[in-house]
Amino acid sequence: MIEQDWAIILARVQFAFTVSFHFLFPAFTIGLASFLAVLEGLWLKTGKGVYANLYRYWLKIFAVVFAMGVVSGIVMSYQFGTNWSVFSDRAGPVIGPLMAYEVLTAFFLEAGFLGVMLFGINKVGRKLHFVATLAVAAGTFVSAFWILSVNSWMQTPVGFEMGANGQFLPGDSWLTIVFNPSFPYRLVHTVLAAYLTTAFAVGAVGAWHLLKDRQNPGARKMFSMAMWMAAIVAPIQIFAGDMHGLNTLEHQPAKVMAMEGHYQSHPDGAPLILFGIPNSKEKRVDYAIEIPKASSLILKHDLNAPLAGLDTIPDADEPPVGIVFWAFRIMVGLGFAMLGIGMWSLTARARKKLYDWPWLHRAAVAMGPSGFIAVLAGWVTTEVGRQPFTIYGLLRTVDSASPLDAPAVAASLVAFVIVYFAVFGMGIWYLLHLMKKPPEAHEAALDGLPIRSAGITPAAAVIEGDIA
């Protein structure tokens, strides 16, 4: 029994490790694909060479990130069959078709146009190439749509029937399954997080090069565009996160109790605990710094509204409070820090000092990884907060795992750690190497000049100097 417990723990650690690596890359590619589409669209509209040059600069980075995302995603699917075969068997009739839709729509769309986007910049007409860029950007969003629908159904399962063999079978309407209660909120929150992740990564690169050369036109343009995105999207994301939290309170109250650190119910208004050390053994938050009744105001819009605590939940159904509590605060704290950078940039822009305030640029560089950390913290909040269930309230994690021995899972976990840090470590090093180079006035071609091309292409126009 003890060995089986260790096998489940190691299987969970392995899945958490691999999905954490994987999640970073789609969070970047979703936003970066849209950024590339905007850059190419602006070039076609304005004819300014700075947009074409930035497109080529970030296209190289997108290609590397996309490849690492595909490779890390393949590993994830294998784990469903190796470590979580019981879950795959029972939930397969519902989540299997949704995953298939992701392949048949998003994957085929991306695969069909990715080659044109990456290698056709000197070989096809500019309008056709722009269509390819738009298609890849749409494919990243469609992929997120289906994957988040699957995850949301596991969080708020509806529209199913229980088969005689214990399987979850689709009911009369797939739309009920796809558009489950938490899906719209999770989709908006996650996609906005991807845009912010990209904005702060692009902004950090632009700020880094502005600190070295304030007159670099590419650095100025990418920094300006990134700060616009931060200033506009960060407040929207905070609002969307609040709406997502209210939805979670309705459908997964135990998760919100863990996020808030509410071990005890509060019949006359619950405090907002800013910081503290959750003590699950004593059912309290030690050294708590709190604002009286503020949690009731946020969650119920009423200072005196009662809020239930974890004392209303059986101990066996409580999520790990400490992890959820701190992951949530990291995510929220970084969200407000992003808002602060966005507002700071608006002040600098209003004073016509956006490119002349080195402390703003240093802060933007420091905030470069913030989006990646925030999406990981958000994922931890969502997934650990769902515990001890894989399908919320219906299928426990301990009942979802394959009958494996702990040494077998440990061996594969060690192999994953070694391979991931070696392969993806080199990939991340190469990405940083690409970002370290400043955007140049005439980016080198990705695959050499064509012997013959259809129409006037972005690359040809830049090299010939036809655009300013």
From TrEMBL:
Q: Name one Pfam family in it.
A: Cyt_bd_oxida_I
UniProt superkingdom: Bacteria
Transmembrane stretches in the record are 23-45, 57-78, 98-121, 128-148, 192-211, 223-240, 323-347, 359-380, 408-432
What are the UniProt keywords, alphabetically?
Cell membrane, Electron transport, Heme, Iron, Membrane, Metal-binding, Transmembrane, Transmembrane helix, Transport
Q: How does it sit in the membrane?
A: Multi-pass membrane protein
A single GO BP term for this record reads:
aerobic electron transport chain
The protein's predominant localisation is: membrane
| GO MF, one example | heme binding
Where located? Cell inner membrane; Cell membrane
Cellular component terms per the entry's GO annotation: cytochrome complex; plasma membrane
Q: Which family does it belong to?
A: Belongs to the cytochrome ubiquinol oxidase subunit 1 family.
* The protein's name in its UniProt record: Cytochrome bd ubiquinol oxidase subunit I
Organism in which the protein naturally occurs = Sphingopyxis fribergensis
